[in-house]
Write a structure and sequence with these properties.
Elements lengths: L1 E7 L3 H14 L8 E7 L2 E9 L5 E7 L6 H14 L4 E7 L3 H9 L3 E12 L2 E11 H4 L5
Parallel strand pairs: 4-5
Antiparallel strand pairs: 1-2, 2-3, 3-4, 5-7, 6-7
Amino acid sequence: MITTISGTYKDSIGLAIAGHYIQNRKFPLEGPFSAIAWLKDQKMIGQAIFTSYNDSNIDIHLYAPGCFCKRTIREVYTYVFKHLKCNRLTARLDSSEDNLSRLLPRLGFVYKHTDEGYYGEPGKPVDALVYVLTSKNAEKWIR
């Protein structure tokens, strides 16, 4: 059974979720953020970190190799489009994540562009593929 937890940059749960994300993605997070994580057998199996909220859009940084299912997708979309009332969700993913880049279009996301060198360590840049999901394309998930 998968359990959901959430937090922000202001609390220990949010900081723990972000720490796990940073450990797995090797990508630093700055500024205000909110976070959702999924646990299985008390182990964190995925995180969604939300940044750059501006009333209309929010960015998602996702690391969820062990928990993609309708429930987790619905939780993310409900948070973004019902709770925050955003018009769109922007996803950036490591260009090597072939499975995720094939999955996002099936979830309603549309590829927009590539951010060169967005991820990675100094001297080892990794491109980010940028996808956008509008509230209209998410409707079937959050009925």
